[in-house]
Amino acid sequence: KKHVLRTPQVRVQVEDDRTGMDTETLKRAFLDNLYYIQAKDLQNATPYDLYMALSWTVRDRLLQRWIHTQETYLKQDVRSVCYFSAEYLPGRQLGNALVNVGLYEPARTFLRELGFELVDLMEQENEPGLGNGGLGRLAACFMDSLATLGVPAIGYGIRYEFGIFAQTIQGGWQFEQPDRWLRYGNPWEIPRPEYLVEVKFGGHTEAYTDPQGRYRVSWVHERSVLGTPYDTPVPGYRTNTVNTLRLWSARATEDFDFQVFNSGDFARAVAGKTYSENITKVLYPNDNTYQGKELRLEQQYFFVSCSLQDILRRYWDHHVDLDSFTDKVTIQINDTHPAIGIAELMRLLVDEYLIEWDRAWQITQKVFAYTNHTLLSEALERWPVSLFGRLLPRHLEIIYEINERFLHLARSRFGNDEARIARLSLIQEGSEKYVRMANLACVGSHAINGVAKLHTELLEQDVLADFYALTPEKFSNKTNGVTPRRFVLLSNPKLALLYTERLGQEWIRDLALLRKLEDHLHDADFRASWKQIKADNKHDLAEYILHFNGIEVAPDSLFDIQVKRVHEYKRQLLMLLYVITLYHRLKQNPAMALQPRTFIFAGKAAPGYTMAKLIIKCIHSVAAIINADPDVGGRLKVVFLANFNVSLAQRIYPAADLSEQISTAGKEASGTGNMKFAMGGALTIGTLDGANIEIREQVGPENFFLFGLTAQQVYALKARGYHPNDYYQTNTELRSVIDLVASGHFSPGRPDLFRPLVDALMARDEYLLFADYQVYLDCQQQVDAAFADSERWTTMSILNAVRMGYFSSDRSMGEYCRDIWKTGPVAVELNG
Length: 832
Ligand code: NBX
What we know:
Elements: E1 3-6, E2 11-14, H1 23-36, H2 47-76, E3 80-84, H3 94-101, H4 104-113, H5 118-122, H6 134-149, E4 153-158, E5 166-170, E6 173-177, E7 190-191, E8 197-201, E9 204-209, E10 215-220, E11 223-235, E12 242-252, H7 258-262, H8 266-269, H9 271-277, H10 294-316, H11 325-328, E13 329-334, H12 340-352, H13 357-367, E14 368-371, E15 382-384, H14 385-391, H15 393-414, H16 418-424, E16 427-428, E17 434-436, H17 437-444, E18 447-450, H18 453-463, H19 465-470, E19 475-477, H20 484-490, H21 493-503, H22 524-549, E20 558-563, H23 572-588, E21 597-602, H24 610-628, E22 636-641, H25 646-652, E23 658-661, H26 673-679, E24 683-686, H27 692-699, E25 705-706, H28 711-720, H29 724-730, H30 732-742, H31 755-763, H32 769-788, H33 790-802, H34 809-821
Parallel strand pairs: 3-4, 3-13, 4-12, 13-14, 14-18, 18-19, 20-21, 20-23, 21-22, 23-24, 24-25
Antiparallel strand pairs: 1-2, 5-6, 7-11, 8-11, 9-10, 11-12, 15-17, 16-17
The structure holds ligand NBX.
């Protein structure tokens, strides 16, 4: 039986129940999978069984495209982008797979016929939380865009058994629960034990002379671990291209020690196994801080070594020498977490393939490119030389060799400017020496980029200034983007439908087309739909809040939202000071006129970050008092949504009126939540930080609520001496608010609970909350006025959303392809 399906981009010849795209075939396949894989019939199936049965059904369709794609890549011996990232936050897979392969509507239809709602099945999926925040989510957006653009790419990373912890709130405090995301199986991954690789650790090195009389080194390792790849298909939007996300899982080399086992000591026989498998057990839950944990370096080296060996294995399958290696492979490292790859590729080339140093170095530099994601110096990775040498003795030698040659070059350029040489060195000298991973990444790469215009400028002028002086041609900016498939089409289906009604479907691959909708700005129907969609989305979120927090919020109040990892530099506390200010005003004058607002927070704190955890507690304490106060009369509500993750994010962004992007200028590299909010028609209140600056340029300054010191002003203020107490003394409202917190008003019975927050602000106020407090209030006043004029607000909302085309990750990926990777799309035929 043959079916032919026509969609604008694809013409697929279909042979059987595993590839058929019509509703009848899909329904048959679904029931078949339910029965033969889940071993259930419709009467006994749990919602999870139904989710699994549908996932198997979609997966079959993906596999066909995946196999064709990989065959095409192989046959054409294409150039591949290898994206190295210790983190990926792809979000739920089912909805995305359905949309991309063009089965969302057919699946909805046949499920309805069976009496099920597709969205209910989608809710069953446990999302893979294999990342902390922006950096991991960016990697996932990039994978989606590369597949959609048809660019051959593979994402390499770690298959953590436990992803980012699940956050629960008890008594207003954050508690962490292990994320057992694989507990009920994962239909989206395919283990590839046949591509197993071995990774060595520890031991020492031995020098020897080879038969040609050349000096060589061999690494006599102490132990080794096996890496098994698990592949997840990454489908492009309505193309035949399906790329691969290849995540490595650690296994012990031998299942157990038979000698010990036979002597009767079973526990000891399996001890080594447990140890090895620890490497990929758990994701470190810190973002934008650095913790020098040995296991973390083991994770980094493990996945990077597995990936490089895998790349070389695939290369050698089709080549007899290394001459075209740099034509076929380019590697992007997502921050410095994979930077050890530079030393590992040198080791593989020099020690294992016996390539001479200079040629190996040429290859390495040509292959690697480095993306920096932080301006916080405390977040830069530095490994104690002692630890490094114990774990990777050969790599340490290689790094010293790279450094010697590099500093020689630097001296020839800068003379003996020893202060500068010391800053450039890959080794930080001192009583405890450190390997500086950012320096290694800069020296070993041919391209270095920041993730927003301001961020790149600050890298060039400050954080990496010495490297910029040496090799300015390596530097470029690549402003971040986010995928419109997940963050518009999937998360905001009503808005997507409105777009498609007016524009057709092309906007989904070319978000810049949305600007055409400016023609409809004054079209009453369009505006009415716009308002209705926002109202519906807010209504949905209000229901979620009622269900999970038991708090009733008014859907027509201003939804003012800050969701992101909790960090002092992101200034959740500044928004909370504003909330308390309004509360304080209401208490002084309960009859005052006030635009009703719902303040929504969400975000995880690193488990060891005491201040961030106290901020979460403080939000809850303030919420408890305000939400219950009869003087407030429901005009202000404060909500903290637990366990912020990709799935929750997809519900929140479309419901926002106001997006809070209020980091201290010069601290947030880019931000990407800022883009996701604006794409949903939220207006931004923000500082001139990260990509906010470019968002404001795109949407127009008149459609953006700007406040705060600039990065330059922040530096200048700090340089001449910043005294938070001056602001406290002169700003009476600020003083009242701080005094209210300090008095224990929000912590009845525990007056000192929030003392550490107050003290940090009064003593240092590292992130200049006091300096920006008044201008933030003033700006919020403008927000109030704008929201009161609903037509004006609607105009601004529309203009924000439709001018966001630049922030599609398709644009970002296009730029990386053109400027850094020198690569492009490859067509994939299904019937070839
Ligand atoms: O990367 C984030 C930045 O803070 C954002 O400004 C930026 O938009 C985003 C994407 O470029 N950085 C980030 O998320 N870092 C981490 O998650 C992180 C994780 C582990 C670690 C250090 C940082 N050791």
